[in-house]
Design a protein that fits this description.
Helix content: over 70%
Distance between the termini: 51 Å
Largest sheet: 2 strands, antiparallel
Number of helices: 18
Number of strands: 2
Structural class: mainly alpha
Length: about 375
């Protein structure tokens, strides 16, 4: 059953709440593993990573109205480019300025031509991890990979949804492309994180399917089932011994050891799902875990949103999650305020710092909007 709120321009509070909680979890996950993390910190990060990025992809598809014509597809693609890729360009420029300001001798020592070429390569590959091309290492772009993954992944899904009318064929194509994306990503990262865009298409498909689910029907039972699926799948991934798995496959299924080793290398590196660094443990089990984890949070938010007055701060962050994302992406500028050289001890100061800077940014934007409206009104009165 499609949510009626999707047919209006009104915001859906539980979605904004889920995004708000998701953004808080992003900060926590990025902080808890600073320096040399212990097993507890890795587990906490893994639990969050198991679903937090898929959450944003799924919800973006849930609120996205798929194109019903080629013309609509082009308009939506253009709009998405303005909202996702252009901000990524601006953010990258700001990060470059910051990099030059913090390391003024870096560009001079490397040579401005070489430094510029490196920065261009960083943007072109837009990877959350360093990329190796023909023996040369290209530094990562950081969390900005998310913009590219979201834009190209959702655009591709929208195109497939427009062109392929048979649902079974569409599902088969989506699964195949996801498999191809995961495989390519483990061997060689593609420009603009295209391999990730291919891999995450199932999340957009599920987000579109989610519109037909009545979230109020058997809520507690559904939430409990999703929680069990998420927990079991996650801990299977997290605790699976690769050497034991390899031995089992070779001995019981009589598979060649070199083929099994290559399979494990491609699909099982990493203990938890980390899309940015192409960690897909026991794929596609990690995707099943991710979707189940997202559903647990969604069901939780449909309950928490009933206490709307208490949830207003998180709803506000979720409603403006892209701006909060910007602030978090640039919070190296405020590192002296939150970095305590204690993994857990840095979480609260970092959250507080990011929230304060975010609120200042929102206040500035609100003031500029009011000023623009005031100027337009004055010009209108003068002309009349």
């Amino acid at each position: 059953m499609e949510n009626n709120a999707l047919k209006s321009k009104n915001r859906i509070d539980w979605i904004d709440l889920a995004k708000g909680i998701g953004m808080i979890l992003v900060v926590v996950a990025h902080t808890v593993c600073i320096f040399m993390p212990g097993e507890t910190e890795i587990l906490v990060r893994g639990l969050i990573y198991s679903f937090h990025m898929p959450l944003f992809f799924i919800l973006s598809a849930y609120t996205y109205r798929s194109s019903d014509s080629g013309e609509a597809f082009l308009k939506k693609t253009e709009k998405a480019f303005r909202h996702l890729i252009l901000p990524a360009v601006v953010l990258f420029i700001l990060q470059t300025i910051y990099d030059i300001a913090m390391q003024p001798d870096k560009a001079a020592q490397a040579g401005w031509m070489d430094y510029t070429a490196e920065r261009i390569n960083i943007f072109v590959y837009a990877s959350a991890k360093d990329v190796s091309i023909a023996g040369a290492s290209i530094p990562n772009i950081g969390i900005s990979w998310f913009f590219f993954g979201l834009f190209f992944g959702r655009t591709l899904y929208d195109y497939l949804h427009l062109r392929i009318k048979n649902k079974k064929v569409l599902a088969a194509v989506i699964c195949l492309l996801s498999f191809v994306g995961v495989t390519i990503g483990r061997v060689q990262n593609l420009p603009f994180s295209w391999d990730i865009a291919l891999a995450i298409i199932p999340f957009f498909a599920f987000g579109n399917y989610l519109k037909r689910i009545d979230l109020n029907k058997n809520k507690w039972k559904a939430a409990a089932v999703c929680f069990v699926v998420w927990a079991v799948c996650f801990f299977i991934q997290y605790n699976t011994s690769m050497s034991r798995l390899k031995y089992t496959l070779c001995q019981t299924m009589h598979l060649p050891e070199n083929i099994v080793s290559e399979f494990i290398y491609i699909y099982d590196r990493g203990r938890y799902l980390d899309l940015g660094v192409r960690s897909y443990p026991l794929f596609p089990l990690c995707f099943i875990s991710a979707i189940a984890g997202v559903m647990v949070l969604i069901y939780l938010c449909t309950l928490l949103v009933k206490a709307k007055k208490l949830m207003i701060p998180l709803i506000f962050i979720g409603r403006n999650s892209m701006y909060f994302f910007w602030v978090h992406a640039m919070d190296d500028l405020t590192k002296s305020l939150w970095l305590t050289y204690d993994r857990v001890g840095s979480i609260i100061p970092r959250l507080i710092t990011d929230i304060i800077v975010f609120l200042i940014l929102m206040l500035v934007m609100w003031s500029l909007k009011k000023l623009r409206t005031f100027i337009k009104r004055k010009i209108s009165l003068t002309e009349n």
